[in-house]
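Input.
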Amino acid sequence: MSDAHQSQLAPAENKFHRGNGDDGKHYWLTPPDLYARLDREFQFDFDPCPHPLPPDFDGLTCEWGHSNYVNPPFGSIIHQGRKKGPTAWVRKAIAEHRKGKVVVLVYPVDKWVLMLLAEIGADVRNLGDVRWLATEDGSAGKGTGRHIACFVLSRPQSLKSRDRCSATSRANTPKEGT
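Output.
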């Protein structure tokens, strides 16, 4: 067993293909109640990741429907001779969305990300693969190989409005000695 991160492993060695634990289960379908709830809202007409997978079907290269439910593999796969992971599915989802299609893509993320996005409405910026500086000598590192997200939690709107009102009233207040 390698000590490499899951993203660096060959698909056959990736935990998403070996199984998660002693039961060896590794393919998971969307619970029917969750799918039904989303389908009521989005009226899906296509699934680019169907189960069972029809022979010669390729969700990464075929044309998608008008409203798509995408539950892609959570690990990497070999696609057209190359290792592909979540980024390939996101690229395809973006391409289909740019054609005017609805895409509902489900994928696991850390809870703290959802807290920042859904609960607070943080703005997210892509800083690219940052070459962080060493504390010892200030030299640039080689980067992480992953893009860094910048989550911006700006001042709440109510505070911004209050600050503008205070600034306006201060500006209209006579200065001492006038």
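Confidence is low (pLDDT under 50) at residues 168-178.
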